[in-house]
Amino acid sequence: MTTNPTGQRPADLPERIRHWIGGELLDSADGRTFPVCDPVSNAPYATAAAGARDDVDRAVTAARAAFPAWSKLGNRERARVLYRIADAVEAREERLAALETFDSGLPITQARGQARRAAENFRYFGDVVVALGEEAFRAGDQQINYVVRSPVGVAGLITPWNTPFMLESWKLAPALASGCTLVLKPAEWTPLSASLWPEILDEAGVPAGVVNIVHGIGEEAGQALVDHPEVPLISFTGSTDTGRHIVRSSATHLKTTSMELGGKSPVVLFADADLDAALDSVVFGVFSLNGERCTAGSRVLVERPVYEEFTRRLAERAERVKVGLPADPATEVGALVHAEHYARVLEYVEIGQQEAKLVAGGARPAHLPEGNYLQPTVFADVARDARIFQEEIFGPVVAVAPFDDEAEAVELANATEYGLAAYVWTSDLKRAHRVAHAVESGMVWINSHNVRDLRTPFGGVKSSGLGREGGAHSIDFYTESKIVHVML
Ligand code: NAD
Questions:
Q1: 408-425: pLDDT as tens digits
Q2: pTM for this predicted structure
Q3: Ligand 1: which of 34, 159, 162, 168 to mutate, most ligand atoms within 8 Å of CB?
Q4: What GO annotations for molecular function exist for this entry (predicted)?
Q5: Could you tell me the fold of the domain covering 16-261+464-483?
Q6: What pLDDT shows up at residue 6?
Q7: Tell me, what's the ipTM?
Q8: Distance 316 CA to ligand 1 centre (A)
Q9: 236 pairs with which residues across the strands?
Q10: Ranges under pLDDT 50 in the chain
Q11: What's the gap in Å between 452 CA and the centre of ligand 1?
Q12: 59, 65 contact by CB (below 8 A)
């Protein structure tokens, strides 16, 4: 294996990333593998098992065998296991962050934050199931009707390459809390951090077969999971195109699906807003996590009187963002995840130069001649029909456009196919709520950063997704409700 020329390589990297099925680390049944690269050298550092139908079959068989015992445990008992998983994740925060940073190019300080959030997901969903009640409805003295919930069975979980470990935990935690057993298919560009799950889950005492991991290419391993008749539920996070395809494939077996898809989230900034706070938030919202964030505020709509000033200040701030080696604690934007994604983002930067006015960035930083680096990039005067206004770029690139009144702001905010998140900045609270209600999105933040409250529903409208996860919504998703009617 090639060594990483920058000295960023963590110690004890595995050379081979294998499936984890029925408590055993396994190669693919047909022995095939695929190369895994890091985004700083773009050279392969390991191979991962390339899962196919047979491997998914083995994993589903193991998950089915583990289901009766796991699903029968009491909620308190399962919660205890989830708390131990949280402890085991926390105990590995540094290792986890180092692997994630190396594999995905996330700045190390942000990767640490994601590791903490992963632990929190387990603690939180442990709490949720302990507190969970079931409904009862009394119809006079005649009848009582009560709901019983049961886990759906073997859950199929398919995750993307941005913040991979955290997003895996976002699905694993509620699935396990609900009593499902599962098969996880991690993203093929970033399988490294998932190689920590076996030791974490073993340490926490999760029985063999409850969690199974099949690595591989989406169209093969992922598709086999979607097509498997014994997997009644698919929780998917990824691109809108893949989501559409999975919903179509899932129709064959009428699977329950949850789709957390792409976004092109607007920031609506009125002239009476606290511009300093809004500026900090915009910079954080689109450049943190390398801009590879589904809820990134990637379109900034600014009321005309402050448009020039805000755009100039945003460009200045973008120029000052520190782009650097992912493992350097001073780095604010690291390397984009993969050479193919980097090329796609650069293509958008080129398109943007024809469509709008480039006011910051737009190129590789001079001090980083190799690796998938891009200066934070700001385009101004972006028209609503521009591709950089309409399409998800998923990198450190932001489109800025002016508006003249509230009606135009809402119209522009809603002028894309997406509807995941939105951000509103104004000191007029009535207007803030009006705009929040009028914007087509699953989530809106008023005068605030993208800070999540795990109890709240998470998801999007239009092409950004189907269904909600988060809080009790996740438990609803991973369980079936049955109503029992009793005559008294
Ligand atoms: P992707 O759709 O290319 O891949 C996501 C996962 O799906 C990967 O594991 C991939 O292997 C798998 N896959 C691909 N084809 C498949 C198929 N035919 N059947 C089954 N599985 C298949 O997405 P990506 O490029 O990895 O992720 C980036 C996208 O994810 C962006 O659009 C981003 O907005 C979105 N995202 C959304 C959220 C959200 O919560 N809404 C969160 C994070 C990322």
A1: 999 999 999 999 999 999
A2: 0.97
A3: 162
A4: 5-carboxymethyl-2-hydroxymuconic-semialdehyde dehydrogenase activity
A5: Aldehyde Dehydrogenase; Chain A, domain 1 (3.40.605)
A6: 52
A7: 0.97
A8: 33
A9: 158, 259
A10: 1-5, 7
A11: 21
A12: no
